[in-house]
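Render this sequence as a predicted structure.
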Amino acid sequence: ELVERLQGGNWRVVSVEETPRTLRPYAPFTTSTLQQEANRKLRFGARRTMQVAQRLYENGYITYMRTDSTALSDQAVNAARAQVRTLYGENYLPDAPRRYANKVANAQEAHEAIRPAGASFRTPDQTGLSGEDWALYDLIWKRTVASQMKDARKTGTTVDIDVADARFRATGLRTDFPGFLRAYVEGSDDPDATLEDRDKTLPPLATGDAPKCESLEPVGHETKPPARYTEASLVKTLEHNGIGRPSTYASIISTIQERGYVVAQGQALVPTFTGFAVSDFLVRHFTALVDLAFTKGMEERLDEIADGTRNWQEYLQEFYGGDTGLAAQVEEKTKLPATAGRTIALEGIDGTVRIGRYGAYIERELDGQMVRANLPEGATPADLDPERIEALIRQRAEGPSAIGNHPESGEAIYVLDGQYGPYVQLGMPEEGSKEKPRRASLPKGVTPDQVTLGMAVGLLALPRVLGTHPETKQTIKAGLGRFGPFVVHAKGGAEGKDDFRSLKAGDDPLTVTLERALQLFAEPKGMRGRQATPLRVIGDHPKGGPVQLFDGKYGPYVKHGELNASLLKGADPATYPLADAVTLLAEKGKPSKSARAAGKRPAPSRKAAGKRKPGTKGATKAPGKKSAVKRTAKGTTKRTTRRKPQS
């Protein structure tokens, strides 16, 4: 009704206001602002940013990258002003150098802001850098040069238009002088705010004008909840609250991801069930330790110790000892039940969520009985709602529903979710029988909802015979294993062993042909390794040469020279840092304990053996007893440690 009433009305401009706006350049980078901007503009994580910055610093491209200071030395100011004059002209150069004061408490003044190194700056294209090194240097160079440029000047326009009893407002923004924006525009954590700051030119309007309404459309508006933290916004919040220091921001964010407290979904950091459980436990039982004021105060005490104004031994005694120290608190909490640290209280959820050995599960009473249902792997608390919980509990209580019956045996076929992911199963285990029903894992990328009866029958029939090899006359089969789909040539490998080859993208174990399998077997195994394309180059190894990331048969791995090392479970290949890769390769390159022991073990002395008196036996049992004592003692110690919290 409102649209119809206003559509034919007389529109008239009742006011036009223009407001000048001045935008000042951003201060040069500190550690935290560099991490924030690299995350927004380059999609770098905090750790990756620091690794690239470390490399640039060590190779003499930038100044030290761990600093709270926004100040530039006279040398840097002169170099930046010289580049402004050369690249943009005198019109963009302010009369006097710009100086930036630190806004961060306890700023570490020993180092200036992060900027290009040297008395004269090299433009990014003059450095010879490439890839992520070039991208980060470009960001630092632009920010530093822009910090010594003139303000940007803009004009905002607000036009009010009346029609009937309604008033409409149009806003515009135009740039009168770009100033520092010629060199650098800061990123934003709020895309909507970024859109509002863009230039939007309105047509020339004056009070009394009667514009014509071309179209009128009702548009709803909904408020949004606060956005999830990104690495950039989390670093900003840490700095604002005085938590951490330039050298620890990246490790804080890496730690909460590596321990599984949060997972990255796009740019957002989403808390997991483990994260909720740990947070709830600490807030409930160690409230003071996780209070922002306590952590900020501790950072200040550590700064005082670093300055020499506080005795470190007295502070440690105050923190750890006494009736209210950490030791006393931990001793008191050892009496808590085991479930106290793995129970999660979620609002709006009917049931109790706990962290178990194989992941999160929910338990709830249904029809007088306690029912436990595993939560889907990879699910987060944000994914749960009452309807989904009800479905999981009902399915667990009533048992799975069959997707159909096998065409030959007539047995029901189920799609189930187990410890290692979803799978199909033929029939249900008989009570008292140790024999397990036939099972088959789902191919990678296939969800339980996508499984049809025909697909399930085919998966349960794997491995299927494709035919015989024309030369060896041995059987060739296609199957699906723990590490993906494959074809196998019976006794076709070296020394008469079975020869396995992984199927490639586009190959399906249910439809792959004998001809395709023969093509795969015709490729030498070594050639496949040499032709493998790395997912990305993580960086340069300290000993020289690139550290590359590959996706192999058994999962992602890193490679340096001839040395390979598989990534640890839960590690994210997309953000895996160079430092961790180097450590992983170093551990892989160490000789095994048995090899070291064999190298140190002296050879048996034949001379000594020859002197043994007739009729005497070698003392072979004593070392065995000694080893047995060690094993028993070690095992006892471990068991005692595990049981202690429950006593």
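Summary. The mean pLDDT is 82. Residues 468 and 562 are 36 Å apart (CA to CA).
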